[in-house]
Amino acid sequence: MNDVRTYLEQKREEHLDELKQLLAIPSVSALSEHKEDVRKAAAWFVDTLQKAGLEHVEMIETKGHPLVYADWLHAKGKPTVLIYGHYDVQPVDPINLWETPPFEPSIREGKIFARGATDDKGQTFMHIKALEALLKTEGTLPVNVKLIIEGEEEIGSPNLDPFVEQEQNKLQADVLVISDTPMLGKGKPAICTGLRGLCSLQIDVKGTKGDLHSGLYGGAVQNSVHALVQLLDSMRNEKGQVMVEGFYDDVVDASPEERESFARLDHHDDEMKDELGVTELFGEEGFSTLERTWIRPTLEINGIYGGFQGEGVKTVIPSEAHAKITCRLVPDQDPHQIASLIEKHIEGHTPLGVKVTTTRFDTGRPFAASIDHPAIQAAARSYEAIYGEPAVFTRMGGSIPVVETFHRLMKLPIVLMGFGLPSENFHAPNEHFHLENFDKGLVTLCHYWHELANIEEN
Amino acid sequence: MNDVRTYLEQKREEHLDELKQLLAIPSVSALSEHKEDVRKAAAWFVDTLQKAGLEHVEMIETKGHPLVYADWLHAKGKPTVLIYGHYDVQPVDPINLWETPPFEPSIREGKIFARGATDDKGQTFMHIKALEALLKTEGTLPVNVKLIIEGEEEIGSPNLDPFVEQEQNKLQADVLVISDTPMLGKGKPAICTGLRGLCSLQIDVKGTKGDLHSGLYGGAVQNSVHALVQLLDSMRNEKGQVMVEGFYDDVVDASPEERESFARLDHHDDEMKDELGVTELFGEEGFSTLERTWIRPTLEINGIYGGFQGEGVKTVIPSEAHAKITCRLVPDQDPHQIASLIEKHIEGHTPLGVKVTTTRFDTGRPFAASIDHPAIQAAARSYEAIYGEPAVFTRMGGSIPVVETFHRLMKLPIVLMGFGLPSENFHAPNEHFHLENFDKGLVTLCHYWHELANIEEN
């Protein structure tokens, strides 16, 4: 391991330059105008995997953006690890809030700023560099590895499910490792044992066939924006509870033990308020902040638009109004069932004088893992060895649909060991990644492959 | 009058070409990028007034867009008419719904299509051409006239009030005539005896300092869009009633006679539904459609925006959300008082975890006139002489703040005789003006100046 550390230190600037190249590619999977950029990022990974010494590197076409696969399978008798990452990123708006442009990576105060720095280009890149470091210094890897890197994580991985279903042999492994979850805080490693699921919908309201003068027609017809507002407001009460009938029916209550363990974690609402710039937190009555984000489902409006958005006033009654909503789900809520309940709610609450249509977007099932699995315990030891701090077991409010896919289709144990920090502006302007965790994370991963090789021999 | 008719027939094509030039100028007063275009339209009017034979033509600077003034004062012993019009227009979005570009005037099926065709460039232009026709054929005018044409009507005439207050001598007249209100329908002239007032506000909601990942933070903090939705929904109930405390307190109920006269008008909800493309009309319980638009106040959301508006999904908790609202007011509601009541409502209903600020935009007081005034009766006779149909007395749901200004500051009787049709897409895509009313309206105006000269002599 000393050679590995030295190698990583010597190559650090070179690695950061490579990472900057990667982060400069605007691989926004949600926007069709970036289709070619997404492909460019896939090609960049193909090239980088080959140079790192991985084998069978290939770009795999799907109906959407391509997958990238690579492997190294010469550790006879040792376990096989499947590493998953994604090279696509979220859109960047509101662009005016970025201090430096999202696709012009910039290092300041020990952090690298760019869209994708932490989610998930930076962390996926680390996996390749950790393997490269082992191969270049030790000439071999302690375990067999397969990497699958996708370009559609941020749009719900629509083409990964069929691929995994069809290619179970190719992907067969003993454990799946993903670095796309945050640590608990600076210097506080965490292994995530639960993720929320996801279902998302667009709601489109159509009233009069065109916009109308609010003087001539105000009072005569339904206002589409007002109708949308009424409809959305009917979905949540003032206590933060979702009012869609049946929404909570399949929620499995967390055990008292689990809730107690969360209560012992180093979380402070006051710090969170400061960090987010609000005077109070808000959410479903009767649950702590960690509980509300980890073990309770939500219904959030991600965007709303209708009528005049320009400078000043325009006295119109808008003809159309639109909203995008996402629910975060917990075991055992089913995303399709929840989407159906919301659609039924909309049917039952559509205001007079408008038509409402819904479009379903991506879904992801919720996931929960056992903390007792040896691969998870080995990850905890690796973190402690490098960070000098025991890893805690957390859940995460986000969704990684692929986790549930692998869990369900391949029955794989899954280790979610990430190196990002919660404050690193995932999905928001000024996304960044702390280089401290870039450095320690690389060593932790190298350590982990050795740990895993030993464990599985026992 | 026969010479006038012949003159107008002979000059028709020339006049329409001139009108097209005027309509091609994108004088959108609300958008600062069109500042120079607004000025260009003012200059166009200065030029056209001079060529028409009006005198003392001048462009008058204000803090905003300029005013245009002209007069002709040689009808000794005859009354003086002040004619008001506006040369500014509404914004054009949604631009994609226009069949031909809003600033490329196009005549088809007897209508001229362009932003401003009916509101109010087209009708203001008619006034000049009617005066020109009288001057060129009769060598004189039956009455003295003053014209004041402004460039800020669509943004609430912020600079007209101080001007009128200061220049009462210059503007002194016996009657004010405005053509900016619609007829009741094709071939059905109407004189408007009441206008609603206006007050408008922008509501800005600010939550967390930046957008957040809806997975990591969903459940922990207030969602700005959801907070805005809750706030807006609290302002109106499902029966279309405004729930802002005190909102209806100063409303003067219309007399049973007036309500009965509205009920006798040729209005059919079914035709309106067809025209607007809706299956049902909607508004405050207990009032007919005409009553809801003429004698009842409203609170409308003109626009809403916050969070992600792009293609597909973006799983964010938006940091900001915005709405624009406009109230239409009836006698004796005071726009500033209503704005205060709304601000108080907002303070009392601000959801937890966000800050809400409001910005007041333009206001206009409601107005009601007496139908017995000789100048109004003369207008009715003029319509009947040309259209062969008696003019009915209506109210209008729209606001022309200047009407209330002149009424209040100069105690002028006001005649609202318009030539537009309600179906001509005021403030909406595909605004147009029927050339039938361009032709008949010109003759009606010439007739009216003669009627007015005779009346006042009795």
TrEMBL record, chains A, B:
Keyword Transmembrane helix on entry: no
Entry annotated with the keyword Secreted: no
Peptidase M20 dimerisation domain span: 193-351
GO molecular function, one term: peptidase activity
Signal peptide: none
UniProt-listed GO biological process terms: proteolysis
InterPro entries, sorted: Bact_exopeptidase_dim_dom (IPR036264), Cyt/Met_Dipeptidase (IPR051458), Peptidase_M20 (IPR002933), Peptidase_M20_dimer (IPR011650)
Keyword annotations of the record: Hydrolase, Metal-binding, Protease
Source species: Halalkalibacterium halodurans (strain ATCC BAA-125 / DSM 18197 / FERM 7344 / JCM 9153 / C-125) (Bacillus halodurans)
Pfam families, per database record: M20_dimer, Peptidase_M20
Entry protein name: BH3875 protein
